[in-house]
Amino acid sequence: MSAWTARKRWAAATAVAATVTLLAAGCGGGDEPSDNNTADAGNTAAAGGATDRELVIWAGSQTPIAPNFNPYSPSVLHLANGGIYETLFAYNKLKDVPPTPMLATDFTWNDDGTELDVTIRDGVKWNDGEDFTADDVVYSFTNDTAKPDFLKDATADGNTVKFAFNEAAFANEFQVLGSTYIVPEHVFSKQGDLTKWANDTDPVGTGPYLLATASDAAYTATANPDYWGGEPKVEKLRYLGIDANQSAEDLLRSGQIDWTTMFVPEPDALVDGSGGAIGYLNTPIDPTVLYTCANADLGCTGSQTDVAVRQALSAAIGRGELNEKAWVGLAKEISPTFALLGRDDKWIADGMPKAIDQEADAAKAGEILEAAGYTKGADGFYAKDGKPVTLTLTSVDGWTDYNNAAKLIEEQAKAAGINLSASTVSWNEFSDARQSGNFELIMGGVVGTSIADPFQIYHDWFGGESTQPVGTQLESGEWNFSRYSNADVDAAILAAAATNDEDAKKAAYATIQENIVRDLPYIPLVVNATQTFFNTKDYTGWPTEDDMFMFPPSWQGPSSGVILSKLAGK
Other CB atoms closer than 10 Å to residue 471's CB: what's the count? Predict the structure, then answer.
């Protein structure tokens, strides 16, 4: 299965924007793939029966809720992505498995990756009664708002859509098949600027649910009786707006929320205290890191622009202590290669470390600095040529797990002779700093890949074409906040993007990993917890440890739509 490349156009970029926000908060193969597709999503019947009990969901929305069900909008609400609008396939980001067919049933690449044929599902209708056709798929990829730069053209031929690309596009497979929501041409083509349309009245989709009501406090949905996968057994949904994790946790404890994904410091106590009414899954997948403004030639300033300082700081960090004290043991070890341990192990090159060191090593930090010409002064801190090493680490005020981790890093760094100060900033200050590059160190999240391949992270977060000089705002679809640019990494990213041969990709990844493990433009900390809680007293069909058929967060589209279609009452 191939990986995917950056979303360079606005419409595709918005699909990950909400995920990056949630990550930052912290709380909150080479074979022909068409031969290995899993069973259709609609063919697996959930145990249990229909229920008119309202399923209550908190997906992170705060009040006031602004009704918006346009998948092209950055403020689109969670029901839209998966519940109303669907993708061609649904990818399970937790496993190295073929994707689940949704609005398409099969796909085939040509040998050089410049063409992709996709077979569209027959018998699907939009919820206004119109037939879903291959022309809708073509429109969804070629309208002015959505067309990606790498796409030359898309044409309909009966129930097949033929995609033609400007160059080898194996790495774009997920973007085409798994993250582009298909919209009705007969509705969307009549609108003006698709980025400004709220689509808040009777949105027309193919998904399992229909919008019922929307207010500034909540919005509701009812089961689509004509859904291609069969009418959902849960008849009613309610998505709440809640302004604090603690409020949501209180409602969860009292049985007033049925599905939510958020940080809870003592999940076992919550689950055990529910008497079996609450189920729980922790699915760590998204890295938490220190963004460093890394490249001086792109305008970064500060001690962290010296790779030796970044290496020393990394050595000084005790990640095991961070996990236990800031993330109460719920996070997982991270690989400095940014391959997800346990899922992506085959992509870690020979000679590269798997998990990064968990123990603080102040002596090693000192050795690195001294080898680079730094000396420790009478004040206990390192300096070079009379200039002291000083670093400022910021995190967003109120993000307690990140704030606690930052304070621990401050202590660990000072113990190694590195004068680091941790402070908090507002969300707006945080966002402005990372967009402009005017920072030294920021604690933030990286979007974990949606398939079992680290390519997305390499391209989006380490690629030179995904960044801008300091002082220039990153463009939509650019996620290289660290202003890292390395010619060898860029060449290897291009080589990996142009092949579907596993050995060739591994060779390219070896080059990338050698450079990023040494350069540390993002200093890896942990793979952060992703905690999902769900009502097991009244509903069946949830993902489980034994059957993790989809990534379980309530805010994740399109997988949340697949989960909703499988739920049933007890």
Answer: 10
Q: Residues 510, 349: contact at Cβ < 8 Å? A: yes
Cβ neighbours around 564 below 10 Å, total? 24
Give domain 286-528's CATH architecture: Roll (3.10)
pLDDT tens digits along 187-204: 999 998 998 999 999 999
Question: How far is it between the farthest Cα atoms of the chain?
Answer: 78
CB 278 within 8 A of CB 534: yes
Assign 3-class secondary structure to 315-370: HHCCHHHHHHHHCCCCCECCCCCCCCCCCCHHHCCCCCCCCCCCCCCHHHHHHHHH
The residue type at 72: Y
Q: Any idea where the domains of the chain sit in the sequence?
A: 31-283+530-569, 286-528
Compute the C-alpha angle 89/91/92, nearest 5°: 150
pTM beyond 0.85, yes or no: no
Q: How many angstroms separate the CA atoms of 320 and 327, rounded?
A: 10
* pLDDT tens by residue, 507-543: 999 999 999 999 999 999 999 999 999 999 999 999 9
| Range 31-283+530-569: architecture per CATH | 3-Layer(aba) Sandwich (3.40)
- Give the phi and the psi of residue 49 in degrees, each rounded to 5: -130, -175
Please answer whether residues 24 and 395 qualify as being in contact, where contact means their C-beta atoms are separated by less than 8 angstroms: no
Distance CA 206, CA 228 (A): 8
89, 104 in Cβ contact below 8 A? yes
